[in-house]
Amino acid sequence: MRQKIVVGNWKMNNTIAESSALASELVAALGKGFSGCEVGIAPTYVALQEAGKIIAGSAVQLVAQNCHYENDGAFTGEISTGMLKAVGCSYVIIGHSERRQFFGETNATVNLRIKKALAEGLKVILCVGETLAERESEVTSKVVTSQVTEGLAGISDISTVVIAYEPVWAIGTGKTASSAQAEEVHLLIRNTITKLYGDAAAGKLRIQYGGSVKPSNAAELFAMPNIDGGLIGGASLNAADFAAIIKAAS
Ligand SMILES: O=C[C@H](O)COP(=O)(O)O
């Protein structure tokens, strides 16, 4: 039985003060001793430290939105795994479609970042997913298989990797993939992992769904056999909504 994992990706939202307030509200909404599923929040880099203090001792873990593959140096605008670990992050999101779409991230750079994060002991959430044009041209399976295969190239142990399937056309658009559409791609991802790593690793891999998950559709999505939680954008910016989604996974 895979433990579900729900992570709120706050993207470029909230000041430090707003992030702290939201983190406090979430901890209160989940209640003391919550253990229904794994939970994380990914504030902006500047808010990680303060949000981290607020969630310390709670079930909520600190997640980063990206990391670089070098230790340090002339990489303006980037952040290192050492910096993320020092602030208390346990997970890092890598290859989000917004990074791929707007910041030139490729399967090759995603792979470098994942290798570095894993080598440094950070757990990874690898994001994959097709655009609307790719879905309409019926290349979803090809695109997602390459993102998984190339993203994980050369990585032998995926026990601390989670994959998030996020169809780009469903992110922030209010259009959720139907539970059947999502399940079809999740199964494809699990089958790809079976080919690459064998049955045992594939059986243990958690695959999150992301893309307009809300309290009203979370339970149906999370009930699918290969959907092991969610990567939540917009709805994670409201503590009550995010808590409701977490409870749907618990
Ligand atoms: O990382 C989260 C996803 O991009 C989903 O965003 P969304 O829930 O706002 O559609």
UniProtKB/TrEMBL annotation:
Protein name in the entry: Triosephosphate isomerase
Record bears the keyword Glycosyltransferase:
no
NCBIfam families in the record, alphabetically? tim
* Record-listed substrate binding positions: N9, W10, K11, G172, S212, G233, G234
Catalytic residue list: H96 (electrophile), E166 (proton acceptor)
**Highest taxon in the source lineage:** Bacteria
Subunit-structure text = Homodimer.
Named in its record, the pathway it takes part in is: Carbohydrate biosynthesis; gluconeogenesis; Carbohydrate degradation; glycolysis; D-glyceraldehyde 3-phosphate from glycerone phosphate: step 1/1
Among SUPFAM superfamilies, the record links this protein to: Triosephosphate isomerase (TIM)
Report the catalytic activity.
D-glyceraldehyde 3-phosphate = dihydroxyacetone phosphate
* Protein purpose: Involved in the gluconeogenesis. Catalyzes stereospecifically the conversion of dihydroxyacetone phosphate (DHAP) to D-glyceraldehyde-3-phosphate (G3P).
Q: Name one GO biological process term.
A: gluconeogenesis
Where does the UniProt annotation locate this protein? Cytoplasm
InterPro entries tied to this protein: Aldolase_TIM (IPR013785), TIM_sf (IPR035990), TrioseP_Isoase_bac/euk (IPR022896), Triosephosphate_isomerase (IPR000652), Triosephosphate_isomerase_AS (IPR020861)
What family name appears in the similarity comment? Belongs to the triosephosphate isomerase family.
**What are this entry's molecular-function GO terms?**
triose-phosphate isomerase activity
Claim: Chaperone is one of the keywords in the record: no
Listed GO CC annotations: cytosol
EC number in record: 5.3.1.1
Q: What is its main location?
A: cytoplasm
